[in-house]
Request: fold
Amino acid sequence: MKNPVKLLFSAIFAIILLSCAPGGSETDFEYGDISFVCPAGGSVTGTDDYVYSQIVTVEKDGHSSSGIVLFTLLDNSLDILEMKQLMQESIEEQGVFRDLKFFDLPDGNYGRYKCMRYGYTGNIFGLEHESVVCYFEVGNWICFVSSQQTTDDRQKNRPGFERLEETFEIITEATNENASEI
Reply:
């Protein structure tokens, strides 16, 4: 039997590849413990609440747009580095990317949260894709934020990705020693 965490990541990755819906103006969004402003030109295209996780998917409008951000909160009883490894294995097992390469990035911030980061690149249907994954612990949660796009869309996606990052909040955190003032 497959590892349930890998099955969860497989479901998440399927959502990333299959969902697409148009959106309108900038809107405040809240789901479970996740809150942010969805930028104009973007849409929340998926929300899922599992026993120990919450997932929200935001996509750029239209079938020819590549910008997508996936917010995943997982119960922090799991080891964050093991979760990173399971997520990478799940992406590899999907077989969607050709020439998939993972690489570590320097630690940084996602909004006001200090985070560890890694990236990956690969080819999907002849288009070069890139992704940056920020991950950190807050309160009772491990948070993974994955931003993916084609390399050609990097400039046009930047404002929307930045708006999501600057407004992202984990609602239930009473105090967050991991938060940093930027």
About this structure: The chain is about 25% helix and 45% strand. The radius of gyration is 15 Å.
